[in-house]
């Protein structure tokens, strides 16, 4: 590989004043860009016939959340092995419903189970715990039916600083837009927020043909579970509610995700190996929108990750809105060894940076040594309306260098949003924040958390940044920069 030479900081004046206004895209947002209005539900959610042998709880729209949850939980307790609890048409407020082994929760097509609100939960003698629907130390559970489980998420958050629609962000440059975006986020008013659906230490789990919406926290959480199937599922959150990850896999072996639509404000699909090793994950035919990362491994990463595959997925932001962090983010910050990731056939529209692979030394948990990232294959990525380069970087700790190894990139195409640009480039990118979030300021969390410190420090290239890496093979790399860009295509540091 050609090694780039040292360079002098470059100050770039505005050479183009073009901006991108609201533009038609495949998926559209509402007036304030808080949610997607044309989710193709019929593609994912099918009408189902309930089993004839089932238990129908005598719940009511007029009952309190505690009463409805008690009735459902009593029905669950009474089930024989392989039994089904059927939720009939209607909207029912609930506190936590706790599932058990060898059962099906069937939420009918016109039924909706709704979490009690923040105010109700604060006053409740039986408050939420774990999730709106929760299972722990169980096996052989199915959640299905075509209905909804809702989280009352907005009641757990404060009003944002401004209610101006996110469409307005298209008129700002990148720096200003990030600050403006944060003014539009609804941050939590309490630490006691709850997932919509959560499984902990379970196995043989199926989530199929359900809608999860209005989450107050991580939406669907799979914590230390084996043999999980998630399919034909729609996640429809308020895209301005903070910390509402779509699907979180937090350790376990064997998870298949297919044919899902995820619209949320934080990471869409994220693998967080917090509690134990994560292995054998397959993701396919999913459509996602978010203002964070679309597919992410880490950043929380004290345990190892291996054998992860993703293919045929679509990442987007609606109506000409651009932003977020990375389409694909592979991050070992806390000692994890990430080995064997294959990603192919990905369409992106409006994502800031197509790819970030980052090995750091935050070591937030008990690990004392930097982990590793190796054997990564990413191919056939088509990204339009991007704003930042892709990046691959290891880290330097004292005199020791930890390298990202064996990465193959093939047929990666990126076309920049053609807007104004104002940059200042470092003579040499620093190692700032290697013990925190990624130090690549305009791709990373670090930029968003410490805007003032990194405001005018940009990566010195428009296509691919490589540092502290070994055996990086890239073929068919095609990047179209802004018309006003004077940056070099690649930065590769020996």
Secondary structure: elements and pairs:
Layout (H helix, E strand, L loop, with lengths): L40 H4 L20 H14 L4 E5 L2 E5 L2 E2 L4 E5 L3 E5 L2 H6 L7 E6 L2 E6 L3 E3 L23 H10 L11 E6 L2 E11 L6 E4 L2 E11 L10 E4 L1 E7 L2 E3 L5 E3 L6 E7 L2 E3 L5 E3 L7 E12 L6 E10 L4 E13 L1 E9 L12 E15 L3 E4 L1 E3 L2 E3 L1 E13 L28 H5 L1 H4 L6 E7 L1 E12 L7 E5 L2
Parallel strand pairs: 1-4, 2-5, 3-6, 4-7, 5-8, 6-9, 7-10, 8-10, 9-11, 10-12, 11-13, 12-14, 12-15, 13-16, 14-17, 15-18, 16-19, 17-20, 18-20, 19-21, 20-22, 21-23, 22-24, 23-25, 24-28, 25-29, 28-30, 29-31
Antiparallel strand pairs: 26-27
Q: Total helix count?
A: 6
β-strand percent reads: 35-45%
Q: Examine the coordinates and then state which fold CATH places here, giving the name of the CATH topology.
A: Pectate Lyase C-like
CATH class descriptor name? Mainly Beta
Shape descriptor: globular
Distance between the termini: 9 Å
Strand order of the largest sheet: 3-6-9-11-13-16-19-21-23-25-29-31
- Mean of residue pLDDT values: 87
Low-pLDDT residue intervals, each spanning 5 or more residues: 1-20, 432-436, 439-456
CATH architecture: 3 Solenoid
Total of domains: 1
User: Which bin fits the share of residues in helices?
Assistant: under 10%
Q: Which structural category do the helix and sheet elements fall into?
A: mainly beta
| Sheet of most strands | 12 strands, parallel
